[in-house]
Every structure is written in C-alpha cells, then in structure tokens.
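S.,

Sequence below, as promised.
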Amino acid sequence: MKNCATKQEELWAGSFGDDYTEKYDTAAMLSSRLGLWTKIVRGGGDISSCLELGAGAGLNLRVLGMLFPKLQMTGVEINQKAAGVCAKIQRVKVLRTSIYDYQSEEKFDLTFTAGVLIAIAPERLLEVYDKLYHYSKKYIVLAEYYNPTPVEIVYHGQTGQLFKRDFAGEIMDRFPDVHLVDYGFVYHRDAHFPADDVNWFLLEKRA
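The prediction came back faster than expected:
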C-alpha cells in the first residue's frame, strides 16, 4: 500500500491503530455495538449488502452479520492488523487501503461509518461524503460524535486528530435526495449497552 495521504491516516495505520485494535476487540465492545445496531436497523428495511469505510477489526460487521444472516459485507481498512482480524469474519471481504483510494464498480444497500468521520481531515471530508453517497443504493448510516458546529478535540494528547460536527446535516445539504429516517444517542452510562456518547443517524436516498 502506498504512503498514507494524511497525518490522521498515519496515526491509524501505525502502532496506535494496532494498539486500538487489541484494546477494543472485546466481548464488551461487541455487545455495545449489538445494542447500537439493533436501534439503528429498526428504522430501515432488509438489506443484502453493505460497505463500511474504516472497518477496524470488524465489530460492526460482526453484528450486522448476526442481524442479517445472508448479508454480504465489504470493509475498507487502512491498518494491517485490524484488516487481518476483520478478514476472518464470515461473509466479509476486506480491502486494505485508504478510504480516499477506494474504488469499486459495486454498489451496496447500506454504506456507513462508525467513529471514522471524526478522524478524517476536515478538508477531505467531502471526498468521504461522496463515497458514502455514490456507493449506496439506499441507506447511509453515520455513528459519530456530534456537534452543531465544527470543533476540534484534543485526542490522546494530540491535536489535529479528532473533530466533531454535524456530519449527517452536511451530507443532507450536499445531496438533496438524502433524507433523515431516524437518529439517536447512546450514553456511556447506559445500563445495558453503553457506548462512547455516540450519535447515530439513519439516512435514506430517495428518488
């Protein structure tokens, strides 16, 4: 794979991404994602294919595979260790590449990111929005940190690595045929399925 396109990619492709994979590939995190996706998919219809940009170790894909037993899944992941773990999941095809470099003739019933847009360089967000839109046949899901206006957060003592904004609103503004179906919030002190104060948005492309 060629050199990383941004300093954010350098962070996640390297040892930091390796450590993150080990730390968060746990049964507790899988349970948390199950709670998250159970809420998300109740607002949509059946799907037969999906694409995750920034798949990590594949926690989201594992859960979606449970919820949709015939689902064909594709993950794009820049970290070699995470991609290797993800590739072991049944019915998952993993492409170890940059999100910016990903290209395909295939389109999917669902495209999504989870904790990925927050780590995209702001000046390159539109590229990722365009990929989420272009490769989706119907649904787009975002599970990210939300803020009504763009703001940067210091992440593990580093600047320029984590950003919050209204990602869903920006996608709907960019693509008039994309509409909000459902949204929600998962609190870190939820008694059953806690998550890291994540906002999720289920969007649909409509003719």
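The first strand starts at residue 49 and ends at 53.

Coffee later?
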